[in-house]
Q: What sequence folds into this?
């Protein structure tokens, strides 16, 4: 149970919950109610533990009920509804230096050091969990707005003529034009750059 | 004909070696002066082999055309679309990519894209999606351009165009080029390079203006074909009204993808040619690039997959500085825009707001006559040749002029077309004027031709009057005829007297004719004409002379 308590400790106390003392613990989406009579203690230690054990032992009686009083009944399930997926390490060799250089050049990000690269690899591992899902025969979703109507605007002139406001945002302007450097300056080649990526395997 | 194009571009001012910023190393190329008739002909093997016995080359040209949509406001924002305006005055917060702004699609732009798709025989996708194309450049403040890469509005169409072939350019053939897709996309701003102060000035008036990108398959094989296809597309867009397609104002931009290969082998590496400002330069740029690639390959070099800019002053293509290497645009679906759904009469839901619906069938019914249809109608209605109708439609306003004159004169249209195409058009080209700027109105021309038809003046006199009219001094044809005394002599007696005088003055010729030499008769007719200063009807004169001579 230690991991639960540490998670609870991670939650920032007093995070502005309007309803007096209730705390959301996001990992389990569980609705925990602390001592109702306002108070500094967010959860009575023992009472919390007992509540957890109750639930963990499949305490809900078949029907998923939201904890808490009927006025606050939500649609949040008591028990987790997803399965744990094994996070496999990256299948091929790790992200290569060529790819990192390509990314830095394209997106103008700076990984700065190997820790940054590791964060990238962890993000890729996290997203790779999607491979466990069977998507046969399912249309890929392009947009969460796919059931909305795209609003078509009439062809009328409604905006413009705010030159001073726009130019006010720029540091340098000349005669109502924005000033930019003369063309893209591409990143120098990997060999010529002073970057941690040069220490390559 | 292909060879003659090559020779012309061989003689075009050549780029200095320093200008061709040779980024690519490779075998040093000698200046290829007069390499002889290297053939880059059409496919189907009618290109002759080169002098050195090299296998014939075949060029493959594909075009990407961006046409600015003619609308009041921009594609995703409500700011105005106007060509020359104070810098950054037609820019809304969305165009400047200020945070917190969202795109709102313009209905008129969707309709323009559907109209163009229908006119080019495309199938319209009832559901199309918007994507983001990411690249960094100062005139693209958001860092991405909203376009339609995965599922565009229209796909799989065709464009038919005609061009003149044959030695004398008098045979018209029809070719077709397939249209891969038509998509809606945003325009970027305009950047003015100030090299002296090493900075770029950015004007966002043009940012977010709606563009239709027409992607053609590489079905063409010379600059001339490409220019003809672009001209036809220009006419179609102008007829539909979806774009004014004026290349000089940047409303129609063409990028050409050019490669060469031997027939039967795989396609060669292609280069992209940008910065072409008119249809004429398009043909020259493509032909130059074809030639450059052939020369490069024949000298043992390789063609790099790069982007080149056309320099119209030097007549050559130069590698562009900023576009080195292959760009990775990292396409992703546009998260702020749902799919664009178009309807037709069958799929139209019953109670939808009309303003929110773009009905494909409604637009199809209201399409105007396309240029190809109008040409056929002209030929049927007036009995002129197809080449004539082609020229009539090619010149802006000439068809209306022609029809105005036809209405006002009983002259046979076939005869009239000669006057229009040879005389009027000749004068216009000489003085570099458009039909609208012509000092001779259709009314005056009709009056003149009526005088001709009635027999008041002769054909040569009519040409004289036309020349006078071109001075634009607001005199009617009749006034000019009276002033210059160009009327035909109507009095039979007077004519007979003149003929008699001529005959008496040239007894030798009379003897010759009486002996049987009829050709001398023409000389006598010519003499009569000179005496009357062109005011005698040659047919009548001939009759009188013959009558007299046989007496």
A:
């Amino acid at each position: 149970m230690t991991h639960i308590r540490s998670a609870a400790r991670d939650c920032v106390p007093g995070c502005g919950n309007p309803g007096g003392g209730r705390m959301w613990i996001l990992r389990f989406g569980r609705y925990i109610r602390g001592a109702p009579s306002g108070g500094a203690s967010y959860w009575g230690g023992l009472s919390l533990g007992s509540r957890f054990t109750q639930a963990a032992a499949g305490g809900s009686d078949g029907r998923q009920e939201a904890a808490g009083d009927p006025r606050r009944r939500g649609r949040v399930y008591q028990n987790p509804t997803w399965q744990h997926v094994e996070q496999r390490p990256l299948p091929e060799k790790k992200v290569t230096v060529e790819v990192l250089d390509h990314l830095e050049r394209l997106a103008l990000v700076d990984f700065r050091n190997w820790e940054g690269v590791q964060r990238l690899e962890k993000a890729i591992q996290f997203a790779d969990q999607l491979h466990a899902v069977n998507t046969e025969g399912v249309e890929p979703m392009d947009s969460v707005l796919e059931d909305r109507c795209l609003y078509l605007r009439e062809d009328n002139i409604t905006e413009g003529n705010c030159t001073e406001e726009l130019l006010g945002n720029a540091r340098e302007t000349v005669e109502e034009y924005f000033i930019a450097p003369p063309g893209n300056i591409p990143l120098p080649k990997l060999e010529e750059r002073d970057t941690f990526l040069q220490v390559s395997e | 004909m292909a060879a003659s194009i090559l020779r012309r571009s061989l003689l075009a001012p050549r780029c200095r070696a320093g200008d061709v910023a040779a980024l690519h190393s490779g075998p040093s190329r000698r200046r290829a002066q007069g390499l002889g008739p290297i053939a880059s002909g059409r496919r189907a093997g009618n290109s002759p082999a080169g002098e050195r016995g090299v296998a014939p080359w075949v060029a493959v040209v594909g075009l990407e055309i961006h046409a600015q949509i003619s609308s009041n406001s921009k594609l995703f924002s409500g700011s105005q679309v106007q060509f020359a305006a104070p810098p950054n005055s037609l820019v809304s917060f969305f165009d400047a990519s200020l945070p917190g702004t969202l795109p709102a699609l313009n209905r008129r732009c969707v309709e323009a894209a559907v109209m163009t798709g229908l006119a080019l025989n495309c199938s319209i996708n009832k559901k199309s999606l918007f994507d983001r194309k990411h690249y960094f450049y100062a005139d693209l403040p958001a860092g991405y351009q909203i376009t339609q890469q995965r599922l565009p509005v229209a796909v799989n169409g065709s464009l038919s165009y005609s061009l003149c072939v044959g030695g004398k350019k008098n045979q018209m053939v029809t070719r077709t080029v397939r249209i891969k897709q038509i998509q809606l996309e945003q325009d970027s701003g305009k950047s003015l390079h100030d090299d002296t102060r090493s900075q770029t000035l950015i004007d966002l008036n043009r940012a977010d203006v709606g563009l239709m990108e027409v992607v053609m398959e590489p079905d063409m094989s010379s600059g001339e074909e490409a220019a003809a296809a672009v001209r036809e597309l220009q006419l179609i867009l102008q007829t539909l009204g979806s774009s004014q397609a004026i290349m000089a104002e940047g409303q129609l931009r063409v990028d050409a993808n050019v490669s060469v290969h031997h027939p039967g082998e795989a396609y060669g590496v292609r280069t992209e040619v940008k910065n072409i400002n008119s249809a004429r330069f398009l043909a020259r740029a493509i032909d130059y690039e074809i030639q450059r690639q052939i020369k490069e390959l024949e000298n043992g070099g390789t063609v790099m997959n790069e982007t080149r800019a056309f320099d119209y002053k030097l007549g050559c293509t130069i590698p562009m500085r900023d576009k080195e290497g292959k760009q990775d645009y990292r396409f992703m679906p546009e998260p702020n825009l749902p799919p664009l759904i178009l309807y037709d009469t069958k799929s139209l839901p019953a109670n939808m707001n009309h303003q929110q619906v773009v009905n494909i069938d409604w637009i199809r019914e209201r399409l105007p006559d396309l240029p190809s249809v109008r040409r056929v109608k002209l030929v049927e209605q007036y009995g002129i040749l197809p080449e004539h109708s082609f020229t009539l439609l090619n010149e802006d306003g000439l068809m209306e002029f022609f029809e105005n004159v036809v209405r006002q004169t009983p002259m046979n249209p076939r005869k009239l077309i000669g006057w229009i195409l040879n005389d009027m058009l000749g004068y216009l080209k000489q003085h570099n004027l458009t039909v609208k700027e012509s000092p001779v109105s259709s009314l005056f021309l009709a009056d003149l031709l009526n005088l001709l038809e009635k027999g008041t003046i002769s054909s040569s006199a009519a040409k004289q009057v036309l020349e006078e009219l071109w001075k634009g001094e607001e005199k009617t044809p009749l006034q000019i005829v009276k002033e210059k005394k160009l009327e035909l002599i109507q009095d039979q007696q007077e004519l007979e007297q003149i003929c008699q005088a001529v005959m008496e003055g040239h007894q030798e010729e009379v003897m010759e004719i009486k002996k049987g030499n009829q050709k001398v008769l023409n000389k006598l007719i010519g003499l009569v004409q000179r005496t009357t200063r062109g005011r005698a009807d040659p047919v009548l004169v001939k009759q009188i002379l013959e009558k007299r001579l046989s007496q």
